[in-house]
Structures are given as structure tokens and as C-alpha cells.
Amino acid sequence: MCLGIPGELVERLPEHEDLAVVDVSGVRRRINIGLLADERLAPGDWVLVHVGFALSKISEKEAQAVLDYLRGLGQPYADELDALRASDIA
């Protein structure tokens, strides 16, 4: 991913403390949440994701505002989602 994009935390992975699953506009991917070790992240929380890492916890209102803006970009946003679909953290 090139953009910082909001993702909703869907699941923590107990076998990998620093990994979680997020949903970004219907695309689910594992991401690294190690940079937010001091946050109490739980399913339903929103995070800003960049290159497979959660950079910060954000509010749902902020997440929706950013997603609305990104959707308005059209093809660049679609390209970003395609890149997200093709990526994964093992």
C-alpha cells in the first residue's frame, strides 16, 4: 500500500501477538500491530494502515471521513484496493 488507509480491526491473532486482521472496504488482510503495542486494540477499533503496519488508532468518524475522501479519488483508490488484495503478511 502507498496510502495510509483506515481499516477496521476484525480479529487479533493469538498465535502472533503483533498480527491482526483488518477489513479495508471489504478486503481483509493481516497487518502488523506491533507499533501500537501500548494501545488496547479490540475488534471494532479503527487503525490507519500503511504498508502492512497499523500506524495509529483512529476514531470511526475519522475513518469514515478518510474513506469517503479516498472513494472520491476513483481509480487511484481502486488501484490501492487491488494492491491490498494482492498483498499479505504471513
Structure in words:
The protein is α+β, with helices and mostly antiparallel strands and 90 residues long. The protein has one domain (5-86): SH3 type barrels, CATH 2.30.30. Helix content is 28%, strand content 34%. The protein is built from 2 helices and 5 strands; from the N terminus they run βββββαα. A 5-stranded antiparallel β-sheet has the order 3-2-1-4-5. Strand 1 and strand 2 form a beta hairpin. The longest helix has 13 residues, at 60-72.
Summarize the structure.
With 90 residues, the protein is of the alpha+beta class. Helix content is 28%, strand content 34%. Strands 3-2-1-4-5 form a five-stranded antiparallel sheet.
Question: What are its keywords?
Answer:
SH3 type barrels, 90 residues, 5 strands, alpha+beta, 5-stranded antiparallel β-sheet
Map the helices and strands.
Layout: E1 5-12, E2 19-24, E3 27-32, E4 46-50, E5 53-58, H1 60-72, H2 75-86
Antiparallel strand pairs: 1-2, 1-4, 2-3, 4-5
GO molecular function, one term: carbon dioxide binding
Pfam families: HupF_HypC (PF01455)
Protein name: HypC/HybG/HupF family hydrogenase formation chaperone
